[in-house]
Amino acid sequence: MTPVNKLTEAIIGCAMTVHRRLGPGMLESAYEACLMYELQSAGLSVVAQKPIPLIYGDVHLECGYRLDLLVEDRVIVEVKAKETILPVDCAQLLSYLRLTELEVGLLLNFHTEVLKDGIRRIVNNYRES
Q1: In whole angstroms, what is the distance from residue 37 CA to residue 96 CA?
Q2: CB neighbours (10 Å) of residue 75?
């Protein structure tokens, strides 16, 4: 199994390729589709728009949320194309990590001049072992 740091590096590399080719200004759906293509071309397994169930007491929602991309069943990738990443965007990804009990997620904002300015790596410190 690939260490999670190597996996996030590979994802970021693919995202940089997409950003170099498309630049800022596209829709999130375009970046998501192109990133999925790059990730699959790199030999990684990717699921787009993966539903996450939500259970709260007696309330069971089969699809409470949808992950933009789930890479290798280990890293959640949330794709954004907006002027500024807000704290609520990071909180959303952290909530997804907690619901799935995954360790790491990447928030990628493609609406930046340089993609590295739009990357946030979020770690779930509340995982149950």
Answers
A1: 23
A2: 22
Q: What is the pLDDT of residues 14-71, one digit of tens each?
A: 999 999 999 999 999 999 999 999 999 999 999 999 988 888 888 887 777 899 999 9
* Residue among 113, 108, 17 at smallest CA distance from 121: 108
Whether residue 108 contacts residue 77, with contact meaning beta carbons closer than 8 Å, is answered with: yes
Amino acid at 92: Q
3-state helix, strand, coil in the chain (%, to 5): 40, 30, 30
CA proximity to 69, closest of 27, 39, 89? 39
Residue 48 · residue 32 · CB < 8 Å: yes
Tokens of 104: 């790491």
Tell me how far apart the alpha carbons of residues 106 and 59 are, in angstroms, rounded to a whole number: 29
Report which DSSP code applies to 111.
S
pLDDT digits (tens, 9 = 90+) for 72-99: 999 999 999 999 999 999 999 999 999 8
Select from 70, 72, 100 the least CA-distant residue to 6: 72
